[in-house]
Amino acid sequence: MDKAEGMTSHDVVALIRRKLEMKKVGHCGTLDPIATGLLLLTLGRGTKIQDLLMSEDKKYAGTLALGITTSTQDRQGKVIDQRPVPALDENQVRAAFEKFCGDFYQMPPMVSAIKHGGVPLYKLAREGKVVEREPRLVHVYRYTVDRIALPEIDFSVVCSKGFYVRTYVHDIGETLGCGAHLKSLRRTKSGRFGVDRAISVAEIKSASREEILKRILTLPEVSRMRGA
Fold it and tell me: For 199-209, what is the mean pLDDT?
């Protein structure tokens, strides 16, 4: 699926359940409401390989906005700090991105689905609570800085499972000394699957059950795509 902005991953799952009249539907990797792009769905017996598909590397394209940090590390959060953006040159920007390449530890944001005592962190955050979180080892395989038009920077990043692009942007902003938040995000790839082959939400809503079923990949096809 090519998820539309404003929808949750669960909204997409619910849509597919209704259209296919199927209860057993899962998704491989949550996308925040502001994010668009590739969302892999598993159906029926396919849910058995959900964890396997979730473990694969992801590619994102995004835009960060310097000078403002928010409670959620993206544009939907409450502004908690605002600082002037210095006259950064390309070398300074690239040096900040380079600091977060390869292996490094990332602190999961409070607004995340990670559970603390069985309760998702985002639910605790809604109650105004902040709890201790363990930093997680993540990996950035490669990145590009595609456009610098201060205070905005367009970028792409290929990263490991469990990586928070919001936190990546926040940390780059702190490295540059002015803070930053995520303005927009699009997932373009997950493992061997690309968004270019995905079906849009609008197409799903207008398609018949039979038309949607024709777009579904079988388990052997998925296995061949992954090179398994």
Answer: 94
Mark whether 26 and 112 lie in a shared domain: no
Question: Would you state the structure tokens that stand for residue 201, as one six-digit string?
Answer: 């939400």
Residues 126 and 74 both lie in one domain: yes
Cβ neighbours around 172 below 10 Å, total: 21
Which distant-in-sequence residues (6+ apart) come within 8 Å of 45 by Cβ? 219
Q: Provide the number of structural domains found in the chain.
A: 2
Q: Is the pLDDT of residue 204 over 90?
A: yes
- Higher per-residue pLDDT: 122 or 152: 152
**Which pair of structure tokens corresponds to residue 204?**
């799903």
Higher pLDDT, 228 or 184: 184
Q: What is the pLDDT of residues 95-139, one digit of tens each?
A: 999 999 999 999 887 565 555 456 554 554 455 655 566 889 999
Statement to judge: residues 108 and 98 lie in one domain:
yes
CA dihedral 58, 61, 62, 63 (to 10 degrees): 150
Task: Note down the domain range covering 201.
Answer: 2-55+191-225
**Active-site choice (32, 74, 103, 196):** 32
The token duo for 184 is 């927009």
Most confident of the ranges 55-59, 75-79, 172-176, 215-219: 172-176
Is there a catalytic annotation at residue 171?
A: no
Same domain, 175 and 88: yes
Q: Can you name the residues that pair with 79 across neighbouring β-strands?
A: 70
99/141 same-domain check = yes
Shared domain check, 179 and 103: yes
Whether residue 151 has a cis bond before it, omega within 30° of 0: yes
Q: Could you tell me if 48 and 160 lie in one domain?
A: no
